[in-house]
Amino acid sequence: xxxxxxxxxxxxxxxxxxxxxxxxxxxxxxxxxxxxxxxxxxxxxxxxxxxxxxxxxxxxxxxxxxxxxxxxxxxxxxxxxxxxxxxxxxxxxxxxxxxxxxxxxxxxxxxxxxxxxxxxxxxxxxxxxxxxxxxxxxxxxxxxxxxxxxxxxxxxxxxxxxxxxxxxxxxxxxxxxxxxxxxxxxxxxxxxxxxxxxxxxxxxxxxxxxxxxxxxxxxxxxxxxxxxxxxxxxxxxxxxxxxxxxxxxxxxxxxxxxxxxxxxxxxxxxxxxxxxxxxxxxxxxxxxxxxxxxxxxxxxxxxxxxxxxxxxxxxxxxxxxxxxxxxxxxxxxxxxxxxxxxxxxxxxxxxxxxxxx
Length: 357
Description:
Layout: E1 20-22, H1 29-38, H2 47-59, E2 65-73, H3 86-93, E3 94-107, E4 113-118, H4 120-140, H5 148-165, E5 167-171, E6 184-185, H6 191-199, H7 238-248, H8 258-267, H9 278-284, H10 319-324, H11 350-356
Parallel strand pairs: 1-3, 2-6
Antiparallel strand pairs: 2-3, 3-4, 4-5
């Protein structure tokens, strides 16, 4: 596609000049008929005559085309008149603004188009409306932030640039709306295209997007950190702490377990003098009474373990140990006589005996 070039008079902030016209070697019949209608006494027998006639008509000061008409507010939204009659509101609150332009380029060869540029009066009226009405409404309709005024100024500056750069380009058949003084109107619904383009320049004032909120998480307290209290230490009794320190500094001695010393330690015990109370036997076996005599030689334990000991223990039978062996065939409850269970509390626990030693 060949580049779509425009004359320098179509650039932004440029003064009006004679339109740039390019005709084909054979003039289109519709153009000849239009020129004969608006210039009845001009000869149109050659391409040069068509060129001179069209240039003179479009270069005149009255050759101003009306592209469309906009229905705009007279004042900001907060200053509009409120009335029950909508006709009264329309008359006093709105105005009709004609969007006028002049021809800057006619190409009947490559692009077959006509280019229009807005007049300085139209540009000025649109800029005033944007500054005094549209910008005020946009400011009132948005919340305040630190850069609101700067953003509003930039919005207005962008509109000034856009409206000065705007050039409407359409098909060359638009010249059928040409009149005798060079003025004209857009036909075949082309006015809607200009109206949509002009109203699209009135951009809203957009507030900045919300900033992401940084979630502040509390710093976890590590054991190595210093604080007013050491939360990782549990409140233990003083006796337990003393026993723990004693166990820490206990001399090294061989450790015996139930697997290697249980049988030898209990083999020398005489269980013939001890007898369990009837209440204990009733709790151990509520449905039967053990009256059979068993051998005094205990069998090695199979499914339990004794606490770790570092010194030989005295031959004192513990109730918990005897209860673990209640199903063993080598223990006789009938021969356990002479042991007073009320004196059981006089015997020191194994752990206390160990610490004492």
